[in-house]
Amino acid sequence: MAAGLVAALLLGFVIARTTDSSSSSGAAAPTAAPNAIPSHSHGGAVAGDLAGVSLSAGGFTLVPGATTFAAGVAQPYTFRILGPDGKPVTRFVLNHEKLMHFVVVRRDLGAFQHLHPAMAPDGTWTVPLTLPSPGVFRLYSDFVTFDPTGQQVPLTLAVDATVPGDYVPVPLPPAARTATVDGLTVSLEGTPRVNATQPLSLRVFENGTPVTALERYLGAYGHLVVVREGDLGFLHVHPEDQLVGGAVKFWVAAPSAGRYRMYFEFQRTGVIHRAEFTVEVPA
Ligand SMILES: [Cu+2]
């Protein structure tokens, strides 16, 4: 278990370096300084912190309101982020057009949601949330704020929510190179490697023809959330700023062999779509 937690840290760290490199220079090779903490990246890129597996990191703590929900019933979910001084944080950095990104995944890696809560002046965040079925859900709060020295800190803090009832976990679909969503086919090229940054390209097709007119959604041609089976370690990766040969290109390194679920969100003709892939990282 300890090894897995260390690995989750490494995953976030490597990605942060990579997104920093691609966003600042447009170059393919990740060469950013190891200590860089880009505002652009997510995943808990602070040494000693873990991405999406903890209530607290870097001196900041997620304090949720009620975390028990009735299946299929909309209910406000509220939370605050307490800073190192113990007070609610009210200063956040606009990151991909939002101050707070909120992601929900059921423990079996199903029932994905990506929402954007609103903050009251006292630092209380609220989002209407419907959890569709009995089970345990991971609620990720993904944001960038400032540490006491004024440095930007990207963090992903998370808590479990429960929906009482008969939980019927859905087996993870087998690994696949294509996914179909809303009549579109999305292909995945590239394979994440353990501790080695690899390109991942996603291409969208309609009736066998490449879709070239993808639109920016929250400032990027695609958003990729990657969740590890077993501990729900979390990554939110942004692609290179421009399409590469018509594909949305990400750089990803995996912390361990095993299975991951990838959630790829993209926009076309004003509609947001989500393609999901199971990815098996070889040992
Ligand atoms: Cu978001």
What does this structure look like?
The chain has 283 residues and is mainly beta. It has two domains: 2-163, Sandwich (Immunoglobulin-like); 178-281, Macroglobulin (MG2) domain (Immunoglobulin-like, Sandwich). The chain is built from one helix and 18 strands. The chain has one helix at residues 2-25; strands at 56-57, 60-64, 75-82, 101-106, 113-115, 118-119, 125-129, 135-146, 152-163, 178-181, 184-189, 198-206, 209-210, 223-228, 234-237, 248-252, 258-268, 271-281. Strands 1-2-3-7-6 form a five-stranded antiparallel sheet, with no helix packed on it. The longest helix is centred in the N-terminal third of the chain and has 24 residues, at 2-25. The protein is globular and about 50 Å long. The protein starts with a helix and ends with a strand. 41% of the residues are buried. Mean pLDDT is 85; it is low at 1-50. Copper (II) ion binds next to loops. This is Secreted protein.
